[in-house]
Automatic annotation (TrEMBL):
Active-site residues annotated for this sequence: 263
Name used for this protein in its record: Aldehyde dehydrogenase (NAD+)
Keyword list, A-Z: Oxidoreductase
Organism this protein belongs to: Geodermatophilus sabuli
Entry annotated with the keyword Methyltransferase: no
């Protein structure tokens, strides 16, 4: 897609490499010829590359290419698609370091703690969905000798997939291999702030996929994103992003009765029961807080409910551990935490911090440094607040920054009520050495994904998706793939004159 590397950001427009979009197997500019500059979050103002500013005209071409490629891709034996997905997994793995480095400069996610694991998850997801491609199958009804009644799980057609910037490769991995394994073709809209790792992923995929099976359009949400949602040739919109944008997309896709799934925001509770405060607990809380992704994670355990018996000890030890994490250049191996994606997100986090500083106790962190190396990029430091309650704005709104708000509790019914008192319901964490208590609490939480005594990211094969305003639909699992990327066709066949039984009377007339 380009001869130059994006790994050494340039200070001027002229030397920034040009990246193209993938449409119908060709790398192309936008029809209207406009470009967007992609700026490195870790190096204030430095331009990494320029990418086409795709609009409705480009989406039109991409959807046409995807429609044209659909019948041949759909009609293959599943093993053909499986072979391709497994080859792509190997090819991504072979270029893993390059993909991780581009992710680090593009998103600001630290190379060691985030970018490399994201690529590893992408590889796993291609292998997983390649492996289960043959499980996209129907059922046969025991309908007697005179009838053959069976179902087929058929692909939906063209999937329009819209990605956010916070972990583009991992989220593309939730959608692309699943949709392809099930026989769909795709138009992928990369996030405007972090399209580069997705373009590189497409470059790897393109070698193995027929033209038009995977298309990638770059551009803004208002132009390219909206055109994809509204396009009559898009059978399904698979969206990951904010609840606000998702609500609008659901409305527009619903208007034309397109299939839609939404992976949206979260404000996830993390409940610590009384008991020994172990290193494993503190490590788990650090992991689940997602501060090593600058808190820019929809599953960040950012509402920390600490039982009063352990409140002070957990806070002190967590502040120590968070304070020891190193913030800085995402490409530097020694850093645990990278940069915030863009200025407006940086300012929004700062605004929340000011609110927290005025209304709560700060156990660690606070406003970002204004001098020194951290002032050269969009860096916030991990911040831990206490002394708030469930009604505080910082305990209710998704901050999408490295900010954790601790709230004390004593009664289990009370903490479950507080945890569930949210418009969101994506993820939750329960920490208890009493496994009965932990699981009983997990069952009472209104969240699509609850982890007990651990805080890692999504693993292949698990169900992933939100309750309430955190989304509609499930990804990552085989069941999610079948529900999200296929539709059921029932076929009833009369087996003719040799029939020995007649179907029940109710089946003779239509509904
Ligand atoms: P966003 O909603 O602003 O943008 C997401 C994508 O939608 C981008 O590609 C954007 O260009 C596009 N878009 C914006 N407006 C559009 C429109 N009108 N029509 C069509 N497309 C449009 O989200 P973001 O800021 O990129 O990502 C952060 C948000 O994503 C957070 O709220 C986070 O919780 C959420 N998120 C959720 C998950 C999940 O799995 N549930 C994962 C990651 C991020």
């Amino acid at each position: 897609m380009t001869e130059q590397s994006v790994l050494s950001p340039s200070t001027g427009k002229t030397s920034a490499p040009t990246q193209l979009m993938l449409i119908g197997g060709k790398w192309v500019e936008a029809v209207e010829g406009d470009w967007r500059e992609i700026v490195s979050p870790g190096h204030r103002g430095k331009v990494l590359a320029r990418v086409p500013r795709g609009t409705g005209a480009d989406v039109d071409l991409a959807v046409s290419a995807a429609r044209a490629a659909f019948p041949a891709w759909r009609d293959q034996h599943f093993t053909a698609r499986q072979r391709v997905l497994l080859k792509i997994a190997d090819a991504i793995e072979a270029r893993a370091e390059e993909l991780a480095q581009v992710t680090a400069v593009d998103t600001g996610n630290a190379l060691r703690t985030q970018a490399r694991p994201e690529v590893a998850t992408l590889v796993d997801l291609f292998r997983y969905f390649g492996g289960v491609a043959g499980e996209v199958k129907g059922t046969t009804l025991p309908a007697g000798a005179a009838q053959l009644q069976y179902t087929r799980q058929e692909p939906l057609g063209v999937v329009g997939a819209i990605l956010p910037w916070n972990s583009p490769l991992m989220i593309a991995g939730f959608k692309v291999p699943a949709a392809l394994a099930a026989g769909n073709t795709i138009v992928l809209k990369a996030a405007e702030d972090a399209p580069l790792s997705i373009l590189l992923m497409a470059e790897v995929c393109e070698e193995f996929l027929p033209p038009g099976v995977l298309n990638v359009v770059t551009g803004t949400g208002r132009e390219a994103g909206a055109a994809l949602v509204d396009h009559p040739g898009v059978d399904k919109v698979s969206f990951t992003g904010s609840t606000e944008v998702g609500r609008g997309i659901a409305g527009r896709a619903g208007e034309r009765l397109a299939h839609v799934s939404l992976e949206l925001g979260g404000k996830n509770p993390s409940i610590v029961f009384p008991g020994a405060v172990t290193d494993e607990l503190i490590d788990g809380l650090v992991l689940s807080s997602r501060v090593t992704r600058q808190g820019q994670s929809c599953t960040a355990g950012s509402r920390l409910y600490l039982h009063r018996d352990v409140h002070d000890e957990v806070l002190a030890r967590l502040a120590d551990r968070l304070g020891a994490l190193k913030v800085g250049d995402p490409l530097d191996e020694s850093n645990d935490i990278g940069a915030i994606i863009n200025q407006s997100q940086y300012d929004s986090i700062r605004d929340y911090l000011e609110d927290g500083l005025a209304n709560m106790r700060v156990e660690l962190g606070g406003l970002p440094p204004t001098t020194g190396p951290l002032a050269e990029g969009l860096f916030h430091v991990p911040t831990l607040f206490s002394g708030g309650d469930n009604s505080f704005r910082l305990a209710r709104e998704e901050i999408f920054g490295p900010v954790v708000v601790a709230i004390p509790w004593t009664d289990v019914d009370d903490v479950v009520r507080m945890a569930n008192d949210s418009a969101y319901g994506l993820a939750a964490y329960v920490w208890s050495q009493d496994i009965d208590q932990a699981i009983s609490t997990a069952h009472r939480l209104e969240a699509g994904w609850v982890q007990v005594n651990q805080g890692g990211g999504q693993v292949v094969g698990q169900s992933y998706g939100g309750y309430k305003q955190s989304g509609i639909g499930r990804e990552v699992s085989l069941e999610g793939m079948i529900a999200g990327f296929t539709q059921t066709k029932q076929i009833n066949v009369c087996l003719g004159q040799r029939a020995t039984t007649t179907p029940p009377a109710t089946t003779k007339t239509g509904a």
